[in-house]
Amino acid sequence: MSIHHLTLAACLAATLSNCAPSITRDPRNLSELKVEVKAYVDSGDYARDLAAVAAPAKSWIDRRARSHGGKTAVVFDIDETTLSNFEHMVEADWGYQPVAWDAWMATSRAPAIEPMREVYQTARANNVAVFFITGRTEKDRSATERNLRAQGMGDFVELILRPNGNKSPAALYKTAERKRITGLGYTIIGNFGDQQTDLDGGYAERAFKLPNPFYLIP
Ligand SMILES: [Mg+2]
Hints:
Blueprint: H1 3-14, H2 30-42, H3 45-68, E1 72-76, H4 86-91, H5 98-107, H6 114-125, E2 129-137, H7 141-150, E3 158-162, H8 170-183, E4 187-193, H9 196-199, E5 207-209
Bound molecules: magnesium ion.
Magnesium ion (MG) binds at residues 77, 79-81, 193-195.
């Protein structure tokens, strides 16, 4: 039964009463939300919000690397943390289509999220080791590495990707990797992600959450 049939059935059931009682319970309209999200980026608000997270992160890394004096590290997520897929998301009308997404990743031309590239540079300038932990899988390793290098973020200790076919929840996979990095003798002084699942689970002195109104990784 189509949505129109259901609406018609509801109207007939309502007979003489008002035929649109459910309007107030409608969720937000998807087309309007798409416009709103795009305007968040186009207006410069997104860039401002990213910069507002990056600024205190840079001074924290500067300060903490100096006071620690030992083996320090930062952990970065990739998508919507260090690389932006905005161009692809607009092109795909905000839908996730695995084939189109894989093709986009393979181009290796996602631009850096500029305020986060500055955070990366601050880390390297202070001799803080960089680890990337991403939900991208091993099959995407070479394209991802090429993309990071092209965007000036190729000086890292490890690029950690999910094993092909690994379905463990993001927070568990990422926490286990931070635990492993800690086991190598590093203090993770900052962990950066656009999803709460990038940050939950500990093994970092500070967690920095970037905005992402585009999608949710549970
Ligand atoms: Mg991400």
